[in-house]
Amino acid sequence: MSAMSSNWDRRSVLRAAAGLAALGPLAACGSNNGRSGGGSSGKSIKQYFHAYGEAGVEDALKRYAKGYDKAAVNTQWITSADYESKLFSALLTDNAPDVFEFHPQIQLIKSGQVADLSDIIDPVKSDFNPADIASHTVDGKIYGVRMIDDPQFFFYRKSVLEKAKIQPPTTLDELIEAAAKLTTGKVKGLFIGNDLHAVINPLIWSSGADTLDAKNQIAYHTEGVKEGIKKMRQLFTSGHLLLDAPTDYWDPSAIVQGLTPIQFCGMWAMPVMQKALGDDLGIFPFPKVTDSGKQSVTNGGWSMFVNAKGKNADLAKEYVKWLWIEQKKYQEDFALSYGFHIPPRTSIAATATKLKTGLPAEGVKLFNDFGHFDNIGWTQAMITALEDVFANCVRKNGDPEAALDQADTTVNRELKKLFG
Amino acid sequence: MSTTTTRGVARPASAKASPARPRRGLRGSSTFNFWLFTSPFLIGLTVFVYVPIGWSLWLSFFEARFTVTPSKFVGFDNYWQMLQDSKFTGSLVTFTVFAAFIVPATWALSLGLALLVNRLRFMKAFFRSVFFLPTACSYVAAALVWKMSMFSGVRFGLMNTILGWFGVENIAWLANPDPPWYWLVIVTLRLWLQAGFYMILFLAALQNIPPELYEAAAIDGAKPGWQTFRHITLPQLRATSTAVILLLVIAAYQAFDEFFNLLAKTTWGRPPLVELYYTALGESQDYGEGSAGAVILTLLILIVTLVQGKFLGFGRGDDK
């Protein structure tokens, strides 16, 4: 009898397990289908953001979304390091975001992925930084709303450089020399990220070249750029660079924790650095690579796009208009309350007192004097092609000419697909 | 579920159960039961394996960028492009080097561990569990531990701290591919994660070797140690060894997680799956080329498996 009852036990356990297993998919159907929330009008839209490093940004975005009463807004916070991969694959599925942040890239427009937002931007066009409008415009139509501009440059510890009697470098040679002088047993002289890819564009600009020219043809394949790549190789092998740090260039930890006195980073991290280092902090743009070059700053940033292929494209457009065109309070809060970003709206930038004095003001000056904005024709595949050049010739001892030739093949193939 | 309710009584006889149970009608028929039990699996297999394979084959003949429903037929262009792509062909070389090292290394290490643990007089269960435990760890979690704490490039990384005691300069284990220290990181990680599992397989096989064989060998004058190991233990482990090698080769083909997590944004140290991920699912979203690469890879694996089967004789029936 006891055997019988244990039999029953096992069976009931199995049955319970099967029941649970059967419920699983049902439960899965019930939640996380991108339609959760169910706002007042029963409509909902989904937005994608990459994980901002600064505390409070996620809550802020959710708070703004709550204030929208025409639809429930579901925020997906993508913590992965390769946000673009996650975004691009999600866009192909039914679960695609209706609204997402990204950088202007023309392939998204050519493939009909992002909606034309001219009608919501045009009325306030004059209030935007003209460069931000230009970088989102194709054939007279504007495809994205710029939320924030993020200049990237070097941060340095004034006291450390003074002690070593070093002026902020203005040429790449001086930077290499400074890195050597500042390297001690415990501290490396310079940090420009673990893969060094953040400085690819500034290196090109500071060599007097550009990614693409005005006719959308290759402009990076110059003697100056080759010289710059060779110098970067020299720097990489010098042993004066901080490498394999626990955090990457976009995180202020390396300079804040004293692993290095000079770090390439973005204006977003300025508040954290100032809090940790006080006045012992200065900034300088990417130095000149060649005599004919000019110092440069990457004016990165993020923009809002509407998924034209989504089911809620019109609603999504309404939402973008509401938050990123009309709600100036939120836009200001987003740009200034967490990390520091330069507001692309001139009316907001004009009243941004936090950016008017001290180091933030210097950052704004670098942004205006040396900044290069996104080129909408420079797409992800081209970015990857130049990252490969850097990987092969800076981190490996490849021949820059051969690597650039290889990149030319890839980039020309892309250009042909995009521009014919 | 309900089919099981009446089984309790009939259970002892179930081994020779009659093929038809008229009183249960359709439910009793073995055909129905066959489909009942296999269909969930078959449906899953069709939806998640066969349909994607077919779809991928179809995609490989189209220009499919940023779409999985392409319309522009390009013939064998994608295949041609992939075969010319030095990154893809390079990934095949990377994989070959990796497999040529990791398969024998894991085989030897797990066999060695099994022999050691098998000899223990006490705490056998403890050591067996300790060596097996890493198997439960995910590759991603382990890769992060390896990257951020053990092989971190800063002075307080574990390996750099140890090397520092001997006055050796900090090494950038992952960022600098020259010399290729990244292989050390990848190989130690995989050995740590895998060896325990294969050790258990070897342990089971070792315990299955009849003691009479060792007794007979001892009587015939075989010295304990190498001679016994070479002529008794190793031949007796042949079936397990073959299976372990096959499993290891398969695991090497599937290598993805630790490469993906340890080596971001490189042009080296990418096995084919990582390379294809970047082609198809990563930033370039070229499903046509990615699918073509997958088909090429499938053909290669097919050839290798056939050749391997010929040499190792696995599945020929005379095995074991």
From TrEMBL, chain A:
Transmembrane segments: none annotated. It comes from the Bacteria. SUPFAM superfamilies: Periplasmic binding protein-like II. PANTHER family: ARABINOSE-BINDING PROTEIN-RELATED, DIACETYLCHITOBIOSE BINDING PROTEIN DASA. This is Sugar ABC transporter substrate-binding protein.
Automatic annotation (TrEMBL), chain B:
Its main location: membrane. Residues 1-25 are annotated as: Disordered. It is a multi-pass membrane protein. GO terms for biological process: transmembrane transport. The keyword Transmembrane applies. It is found in: Cell membrane. Coiled coil: none annotated. It comes from the Bacteria. Residues 92-308 form the ABC transmembrane type-1 domain. Residues 10-20 have a biased composition (Low complexity). This is Sugar ABC transporter permease. It comes from Streptomyces olivochromogenes.
